[in-house]
Design a protein that fits this description.
The protein is an alpha/beta fold. About 15% of the residues lie in helices and about 25% in strands. The chain is built from 3 helices and 11 strands, in the order βαβββββββββααβ. β1 (about 1-5), α1 and β2 form a beta-alpha-beta unit.
Length: about 240
Amino acid sequence: MITIDANGMHYRDLNRLIREGIERGVKKFFLENVNGQYYIGDGIKGDDIIININGVPGNDLGVFMDGPTIAVSGNAQDNVGNTMNAGKILIKGDAGDVVGYGMRGGRIYILGNAGYRVGIHMKGYNEQLPVIIIGGKVGSFFAEYMAGGVIVLLGLNDADDTAGDYFAAGMHGGVIYLRKKIDFSKYSKEVELYEADDNDMAFLKKYLLEYADDFNISFENITGKPFYKIIPSSTRPYAHLYTSA
């Protein structure tokens, strides 16, 4: 275990220290006074590596990450989990735009809100199942062109609008679960809405239990309301734009 004071440190130096620590066999890192440093945890492999961050990490946290756990005590900026392959990222505050872009596996759990274009091009890879759970609300273009995986939008803050415009535009794979039903006019024409059944809730249980445990909140409060499921109505929503009649 090592502690690194990142106050005023260039992101290249911070990431070099983390990689050098891993090469020496360090498994647990505490990063203090983080303030916008980019690329923390990017491309790192190892299921037993834990990076705790006090402060606000910069863009591209956990890009291409393959196994470690990153826990952020506050907010995070844009591109969290970009093309992430495996592992877990915990954000105890809010996250910026483009969370989980092209995500292929692993879990991203956000206690607060997230910005625009969450889960776009999220797809999974082979047997891997990427999962994003967001406790609050999200901006526009949520799950745009989503091709696989699972996103859960809880809306625990009971905001009037839990999602912005262009909801699930172009979605052609995967599944979205909502704890709060939103205005159907915000859904794209390529998706369908159903009430989650017992099988859905049984599937979600392990992820919601883990989410509740990670953030020390009540699982019963999370599951105390009905859930809804959104799935694509077609695996090729724009085929008509590229083929002739």
